[in-house]
Amino acid sequence: MNNNLLPLGTRDEFGSRAVNKQHIISVIEHSFSDRGFAKISTPLLEKKTVFEPYKLGNYQLYSLLDQEGDTIMLRPDMTLPIARFLSSTNISLPQKFWYVGDIFRISRQLSGSYNELTQAGIELVGYSSIKAEFECLILINQLSQKLLTDPIEIELGIADLTTVILKDLTDDTELQEEIAQALYDKQIPKYERLIDRFSNQPEYQFLLKWPRMFGKPERIFAQLAEDDLSPEIEQRISELKQVVNWIQTTLPDQAVSIDLSSRAPQQYYTGLTFKGFSKAGSGYLFSGGRYDKLLANFQDMTESAVGMGINIDLLTDLIERKPTVQKKLLYFKPDQWQAAEKVLQQNPNSILSLSDNLDDARKEAQQLRAELVDLTEGEFIG
């Protein structure tokens, strides 16, 4: 009988993990609200057409049929439902939204990834100013300081850089995709074979260095200065320099790096991208960027937009790994309840034992990995 087993890629959460996760969500919610963001909630189920035009990564989607025969999906993304919401309402722009919710993506088997993920994030819609990106970067810095002991590094990129460069090289879209995939996957021998046909073009020296263009901004900008780049690319590099200078001036203690050879977080990104990661754990904790053409799928007019997602589960993993202060388990008799409550209030890291006898209390303490304090022996002073 397997009726008690969870669906593949899901999990129950309880105890310290559930508490830590809720704490993270609470801190994030208050931070967003304090900065004037409005909460938005969208349904778990969305019509397939909301996500159909976009490739949302290397995973499958949960889909089913509704009573009218339409294909509906468990949402794999939080940004596209918000774009759908904006296209179907008369809400005036600009607007700043925040959200927290679960998304569902079917990962490859044996990948070790969960199919149900909790995500928080913000969407700044109707803002063409680079100040929208700066607001996201400020929040990454502030939230990481509130939630983590290890520093966060912000990694910057340019979403459409690959598209612009490869379109200048060739009109062959299949070749463009093949080169891009080899670049993103760091398949250097394959990548070098593919670009060899462009060895007589002025961009070739840049192409050779491209897969290794990640690291400290000073080194990347020095390498770019050696190459003859098109005005379109130079403009994007100039904007990237502006962001780096702003971070180094406004957030002088914030670690920052650049990666010009990675894929954008989502296909619909169009401008600056940013990711935040901790060397204490794997994966990106924060991820976002500009996507000024997102609403084009839902309405005739597009809107400027910048967004950022936060991986709540990865943040919880990091906090769970931190050493915790040992709890004290207070054993007492029923007629000592008032005294036990007083000790409990004076010692925040303590909990009451509800066991009937001292032997059971010892077992309870062992299970909880707590220090047993026997209040029946006399008054406890913490």
UniProtKB/TrEMBL annotation:
- Annotated compartments: Cytoplasm
User: Is Ligase set as a keyword in this record?
Assistant: yes
SUPFAM superfamilies, per the entry: Class II aaRS and biotin synthetases (SSF55681)
One biological process GO term for this chain?
L-histidine biosynthetic process
Q: Which UniProt keywords apply?
A: Amino-acid biosynthesis, Coiled coil, Cytoplasm, Histidine biosynthesis, Ligase
GO MF annotation terms: catalytic activity, acting on a protein; histidine-tRNA ligase activity; transferase activity
- Residue ranges the record marks as coiled coil: 351-378
The Gene Ontology CC terms held by the record are: cytoplasm
Which pathway?
Answer: Amino-acid biosynthesis; L-histidine biosynthesis; L-histidine from 5-phospho-alpha-D-ribose 1-diphosphate: step 1/9
**CDD domains attached here?**
HisRS-like_core
| PROSITE patterns named in the record | AA_TRNA_LIGASE_II
Alphabetical list of Pfam families matching this protein: tRNA-synt_His (PF13393)
Q: Provide the residue positions that the database annotates as binding L-histidine.
A: 77-79, 105, 119, 123, 268-269
Per the database record, which ranges form the Aminoacyl-transfer RNA synthetases class-II family profile domain? 24-334
User: Subunit composition?
Assistant: Heteromultimer composed of HisG and HisZ subunits.
Q: What does the further note read?
A: This function is generally fulfilled by the C-terminal part of HisG, which is missing in some bacteria such as this one.
Explain the purpose of this protein: Required for the first step of histidine biosynthesis. May allow the feedback regulation of ATP phosphoribosyltransferase activity by histidine.
Which family does the record assign?
Answer: Belongs to the class-II aminoacyl-tRNA synthetase family. HisZ subfamily.
Which PANTHER family does the annotation name? ATP PHOSPHORIBOSYLTRANSFERASE REGULATORY SUBUNIT, HISTIDYL-TRNA SYNTHETASE
Q: What is this protein called?
A: ATP phosphoribosyltransferase regulatory subunit
**Source taxonomy:** Bacteria, Bacillati, Bacillota, Bacilli, Lactobacillales
